[in-house]
Amino acid sequence: MFLWKLSAKFLLSVINGAGTVGILMLGGWLVLEGKTDVGTVVAATSGLGRIQGPTAFLIAFYRQVSANRIKYELMLELFGPDPTRYRHRD
């Protein structure tokens, strides 16, 4: 599970980084050719950031769920019912 989590996070980071670099490179080339202006490149970069937002939210949500699950298990170990306390004596 830990390996899956880290590999998925790495893959999402690579995709997000490649998208930003791609927009800046393609936008820069189009600006140099005179086919677009800098405002369009800035708008595309901003739009990409808005697309990446839900992905960051899902990663943060998974992190929070995982931390809460571990806290719950620790609390259950500390304060949970003792199974030996309820044994019937014959």
What is the first-to-last residue Cα distance? Answer: 45 Å
Q: How many beta-strand segments?
A: 0
Q: Nearest-angstrom radius of gyration?
A: 25 Å
Strand residues, percent: under 5%
The chain-level mean pLDDT equals 84
Give the helix tally: 2
Order of helices and strands: HH
* Shape by Cα distribution: rod-shaped
Index terms:
mainly alpha
Task: Write structural notes for this entry.
This protein has 90 residues and is mostly helical. Helices cover 82% and strands 0% of the residues. The chain is built from 2 helices and no strands. The protein has helices at 2-33, 38-79. The protein starts with a helix and ends in an 11-residue tail after the last helix.
Write the layout of secondary structure elements.
Blueprint: H1 2-33, H2 38-79
Helix pairs in contact: 1-2
Q: Quick gist of this model?
A:
This protein has 90 residues and is an all-alpha fold.
